């Protein structure tokens, strides 16, 4: 009997040591997230390259945008290179968790669901989900949306969640498409309206003057964050630290004014 009890205690002790080792390994991984990026001297940024003005491909096939300029300055201050990696936005969590990218930084909206899947940084900018329609549309507000109205939304975006919380949109004909560029191309040619980030909608109404209009109704208020793997707290903290330094010395304001003609950043 004594031998049996001793055996049980030995097994229990071994198991506890293994669990303890596992926890130490997890902690080690979390603590080394910044060191890993510094070691390879590169931050791989995952993005939807069709999301102007945050991050998009220009006519010369260069990826540019507000978030891109922020990331370039952050990595410059960290003494590492920035690698831009376009991904399928609908599978962004998988791209992040399989370590194909180090972060998601391209108009990433905070949500409780996303916070369960990834580590969300402090918010650096406010956003709204808005309704955009062709300039000659008879739709003047949400009240004009009916069950026959075809509304375009990017698949995998928080616009879908926002639309689902609004009765008029929830009862309409929702069409999920790959990106906002495709949605805007179809607006007025199959689609009656679209729900998207305000910064994107305003960018296109300014770029293609007289083609679209953004309605005054706000579908949802949101905040932009940067997404990291759950354990990568050190890396997240370093990026936020650099953004705060940029806010303090005026660099953040300068980049914001370049893209939006005003400082609309919120991080201090």
Structure report:
This protein has about 270 residues and is α/β, with parallel strands linked by helices. It has two domains: about 30-125 and about 235-260, 3-Layer(aba) Sandwich (D-Maltodextrin-Binding Protein, domain 2); about 130-220, Periplasmic binding protein-like II (D-Maltodextrin-Binding Protein, domain 2, 3-Layer(aba) Sandwich), CATH 3.40.190.10. About 45% of the residues lie in helices and about 25% in strands. The chain contains eleven helices and twelve strands. The protein has helices at about 1-30, 35-40, 65-80, 90-95, 110-115, 160-165, 165-170, 180-185, 200-205, 235-250, 250-260; strands at about 40-45, 50, 55, 65, 80-85, 105-110, 120, 125-135, 150-155, 175, 195, 210-230. The strands form two sheets. Strands 1, 5, 6, 7, 8, 9, 10, 11 and 12 form a nine-stranded mixed β-sheet that branches. A hairpin with a 3-residue loop joins strand 2 and strand 3 (about 55). Keywords: Signal. It comes from Anaerostipes hadrus. This is Amino acid ABC transporter substrate-binding protein. InterPro entries: Solute-binding_3/MltF_N.
